[in-house]
User: Fold this.
Amino acid sequence: MNKGLILIFLAAGLAVALLAACASTPAYRLPARHPQIYELGDRREFCTKCHGYKKTPVDFERYNHTPLFTESHRLVAYQDQRICALCHEQSFCNDCHVTHTELKPSVKNQTENYRRMQHRGEYLSRHRIDGRLDPTSCYRCHGNPQSSQTCRPCHG
Amino acid sequence: MKLYQGFTLGVTTLAAALLTAPAAVSAADLGITSDTIVRLYERDDSGGRQRSLLPVYEFLRLDYTAPKTPGLSLHAHGWGRLNLRDDFGNADGTADGELLYAYLDYLDPRNRDYQLRVGRQYIFEGLMRESVDGVYVKTDQVPSVTASAYAGLPVNLEDVKGRGGDWIYGARVAQGMPGRYDVALAYKHTGNHGSTDEQLLGADATLLLPANITLLGHATWNLVNGGFGEHSYELRLPFKALELRPFYQRYRYEDFLNRKSGGSAPFRYMSQFGEKVDIAGSEAFWYPAENIEFGARYKHYEYDKRYGSADMYTVLAAVRRKIFSEVGVEFGRVEGDIAQNRYYLGRSYVYWDMAPAYVTADVVYVNYDDGNVWSMYGKESAFFASVGAGRKFLDKALNVKVSLDYSQDPYFDKDYRGTLAASYAFGR
Assistant:
C-alpha cells in the first residue's frame, strides 16, 4: 500500500467525517476531572453505578471496570484516554506502561492486592510458558528497547 | 535518563513552577505525591557470593495548576533508586532512575475544545502507547469529530550515549455519534537512525447494536511489511446481572512484532518465523449482588507453525465488605500442547480495612505439569505468600505500609523479602 493511496484513503475518511459532523448537534465536553468521591481511582468501580446505563453523552457501561479489566482495557483506552484521565493520573498507568522501571507493579504496590496486577507472585518461572504461548501479551509492555531492560539479562 | 539527569531536570522543573507561581502557593494549586519504598532481601550470585540488598526507591510526582492562567498546568513524575548496601551484581549500578514524564498541559478553559501538551509524556491513543519528548494536540472543534496528532523523539529509542532515536509522529481522527457508533483512523511513523523503524495504519470502531449489545474492534496494518499485524474484536452481551464478552484476535508476528532495532530483542527473532496465531474465547461476569462478583475467561490459541493448540482458563470470585475490605479467590489452568507448557494456578487474597489501618494477605500457588525439565530446575511448583499492614495518618495524606514476602519456587529455595513504604500526598 503506497503513501499516495494512504493519503487518498485518509482524505476520504476525513471528508465523510466532516459531512457527518456538519449534520450533527454540538458535542458534549468531558470535564477536566471527575468529582472527588471517596477513593474513586483507587478502587475498581462501575461507572453505571451512579450514571446508569444510558449511552449519552458517554457510554458509561463501556468503562465499567470488570474483574479482568486490567487485561482487557486496551480497546477502550485506545479510543478515548481522556475518560481514563478523569480518575487516573498518568503515573497510575506508569505502574505497568513505562519505558524503564525496576519494580513490577505488584511489588511497587504490594499491599494493594485488590488490584489485579500483572506478574503477581513468582512470575519468572511462569513467564517461560506464558511467553511461549502468547508473546503478544508481553509485547505491549516489554516490546521496546527501554522497557525490555528487564528481559535483557537473560534474553540479550 | 541517568539519576542525576532526572534529578536535575526534576528540580529545575519544580523551581520553574514555583518561580512562576505566586509567593503563597496554595495546596489547591500544587500537588506533590511521594512514594518511598525500601526493600530488604538477599541474593546468591553465580560466583557464590551472598549479596545483602537494601535498595531504596523514590517515586515523585508533581502536579501544578497555574492560578493566573486557567487551563495551564505542569505535570511531572519520575523515580530514583539508591542501593544502601550491596549492588545488584549486574550493570544497574549503585543508583538509577528515570524521568517518566514532565509536560506542560493546556486545556482550553472555556469550552475544552482543544488541548496542547509539550514535554515528555505518555500517549495512549490509537496505535500509540509510548513515551515521547515532544508535542501532542487534540481538538474537538468540529462537532462529533476528534482529531489528535503528536510528534517528537521516542523515549524508548534513547541509547546510553545520548539520543539515538529519530522522529516519531502520528495522528488519529475519530468521528462518532454518542450512543450509536465511533470510528477512527490512525497513523504512526517511527524513525531510528535515519531509517524507518515502524510505520503503521490503524482503525478502531465501536458500534452499539440493538438489545444493548456493543461491538468493539481494532486492527493494525504494517505499512513496511504490507500485512495486518493485529485484528481484535469483542462483543459485549449484557443479560441483567450477567455479561458475556466473546472475542476474537488474530496476530501475524511479522507485522505485529517490530523486528527492527527499535523492537525488543526477545521478540525480534519471533517475527522471522512467519508465525500467525488465532485467539478466540470469551469472558463472563456475574454480579449477584453489588458487593459480590464472579468472573471467568476462556482463551483458545491456534498457531500456524510452531505449536499445537493451547487453552487458558480463569475463574475468580471476590466479595467486598463496606467498600474497602475485599476477599478473593482465583483458579487458573494453562493447557499448552505439551506437558512443559501446562500449569495450574491458585490464588487467594484478603484486604481488610480497619480504618485508619488495614491488613493484607496474599497466597499464590502454581503447579507445573512437568517441572522435570531444565527450565524449571527440577521443581514442579512455586509458592508465594505475602502479609502486609498499613496505617493512614494526617487525614489519609500519609500512608505507611509494611509487607513481608516468602517465595519457594524453581529459582529460589526460600526467599524472604521485606518492604517498607511510605506514601505522602501534599495538597490532597
